[in-house]
Amino acid sequence: MRGRRSEWAAVLKLLRTVSSAHQSVTLVEGEPGIGKSLLLLEAASVASARGIAVAAGRADQLGRLMPLGPLLSALEESPAPIITARHTFPFPEGSGLLLWLAEQVQTSLKERTDSGPLLVTLDDLQWADPATLMALRTLPARLASRPVSWLLARRTAPGHDDADRLFDLLEEEGATRILLHPLDDGAVAELSADVLGAPAGEELAVLAAQAGGNPLLLSELLTGLREENCVRVEGGVARLTGSALPRRVHTAVRRRLDELGTKTRHLLEATAVLGRSFSPTYAAELLGETPTALLPALREALAAGVLVATADELVFRHELLWRSVVERVPPPVRQALHHQIEHNPPTRPTPAYRRSGGSGGSTAGSPVDLSLLAWDEGRLSHALDLAREAVERPADGCRPQPRTVLATMLADLWLLDEAETAAASAEAEAVGQPLWAAGIAVLRARLALAAGRLDSAIERAETGLTAAGVLGDPALVSSAVAVLGLASLRAGDLPRAVRFMERDPAGSARGMAPYARFRSELTAGRISEARDGAEAAMSSLGQVYDALPGHTGALTCDPTAAAWLVRVAMATGDPQRADAVVDAAEHLAWNNPTLSGPAVAAVHARGLRDHDPDALGRAAAGHAGAWARASAAEDLGVLLSVDHGSRDLAVDRLNDALTWYGAADATRDEARVRGRLRALGERRRHWVRTDHPVSGWASLTGTEHAVCDLVAQGLTNRETAEQMFISEHTVAFHLRQVFRKLNIRSRVELARRSAEESVHPRG
């Protein structure tokens, strides 16, 4: 009964009132497998131990042919006079039979209560026949003076059926109603430890979460993993050793689906291959049907709790159930369905980018288009396969260029060597294709940014931006501006990053592919956070958070995107959004087990959310890129610095972050980490000696240039200090040096000189 404390308290209260002479009814509702039957079974066991007689029955689909079947079976479990009555006297016919049976049930219940209190438990009343429901409508009131209590359970379902009406009426007359919800994370963890004998490790916990808190699915999963030796206990932690779902899960899902009609099962198997969610229109086109023709099957799947409806799509309620349905589809059938989708795809009404022109979209049904769709939906390995297939086909005029798409995906996954090879091939292929050439310039900029070559990234992105502007491709403009903004931010040039952000990179990508839009929106959010704080970033990121987990492009365009989104959500007091990001990141990792990048990103996000130093340490060691390793090490250093006993460890981790940020030329991030070290009493030299003229614009140091840029924008000394992670006194010192070298006396003059220099740079 893990996670059912309040519900069990209500049942115990019912048992305490069995002996009292008043109507006592408790109603239990919930989805299939949520624990209704277990609750009734436990109640019967406790009642028997307390000397309370129990009459237990249940309805079933075929039992509807037997009037009053659940009540009769409940009373026949113990000796009851109704057995003799049915065989001794002739049955009346028609409605008279129902009245006679109801009278016999009532008489039997009275006789049972003559010898002591009685608990009646009836399960699965969603399948009860009308006579049973009518009897239950009146029996509790008629027997209110008897020591009898009623515990009635049914599945919840969309719509309003007769069982639902019965429960409503009984509740109006004083019955207690219990709705069993999915188990929370704590209860799932406790149940996992109960079954496995040890707390679940990280991968196992992610798999257990796919049961969606459904106790039956979770129990079958854990028991099956244990029976099939797919779990081992090491260091007091249960760790997953296999990836296939155990047979027990498939058996439980098959039983669930066997309750449905043949057409409904076929519909679920076909749509499951598309993904966990699907559009009814898309499903109809795939199956060569009209939406109207599919309506009965869809209604049955919804009523059975297999599917749930969102605003736009239908979704398999539990990820574990969906995975089982997919795995049970024979591989040749799966391949045939994939082939049909890829070569003759239905017109999917939702994402607009499939119908847009320019490089934001491509010919509907082409491998490039399908690869981008799979990428957006988090099927990264499949997306890579489709992109690799696309580069083997003739691609003249295809927008975007297949090899560029492949190289971009590889770069996002930090497979930089393969990305460089693909980029070189794309460059050779782009001769005579201006739009492709512009895309390659932006791709090269992204690769340079990933490698920490910020000057090269800025130079190549500016080349791509110019070409994209001439060619009139807004998505490519957006991608170039995103690289320029992020590279400028890391280089410590916040004013230039802000200027790029003000070109609205996210806005220019509206209507374009999610992979372009999310990259731009994240960059704009990072710059907004740097300038105005986390609240400002959150105000522009609502759509990114809300799109998870249906669109995971926001998590795949940067290995630290998930961690950063968690950090912003926590900084703004929004733990629900932080949890949503972690869930989406872990889901992405689970669905792509052959790729290491998503797994490390999920560990980083989880470590931040749970304040887990071990997870952050693994992320710092596991990230492939220097900047990402530095980010995780900085997060770990910040966490350890809160614990005064861990100061030395915090300093070590922050020093690691400083080293890795330096390897990525991330000047701004280095400055922030030095500030954190100063707060711990550590100081780090960070200047280099160079020869400068003694006066004039060329005499200014890099730090003095940064101060000039911020002050010229109107920032105060305090605001400038916050942006540069230095003290206000240091800003004042640098500003005096600037005034002296430029021979000026006011901020107004500085702003004028700065504007002139930006238009006519010298030196």
From TrEMBL:
UniProt-listed SUPFAM superfamilies: C-terminal effector domain of the bipartite response regulators, P-loop containing nucleoside triphosphate hydrolases
Alphabetized GO MF terms: DNA binding
Nucleotide-binding among keywords: yes
Family matches, as InterPro entries: AAA_16 (IPR041664), P-loop_NTPase (IPR027417), Sig_transdc_resp-reg_C-effctor (IPR016032), Tscrpt_reg_LuxR_C (IPR000792), WH-like_DNA-bd_sf (IPR036388)
Alphabetized Pfam families for the sequence: AAA_16, GerE
Every HTH luxR-type domain range: 693-758
Region called Disordered, residue ranges: 338-364
Keywords per UniProt: ATP-binding, DNA-binding, Nucleotide-binding
DNA-binding in keyword set: yes
Name of the protein described by the UniProt record: DNA-binding CsgD family transcriptional regulator
Gene source species: Streptosporangium lutulentum
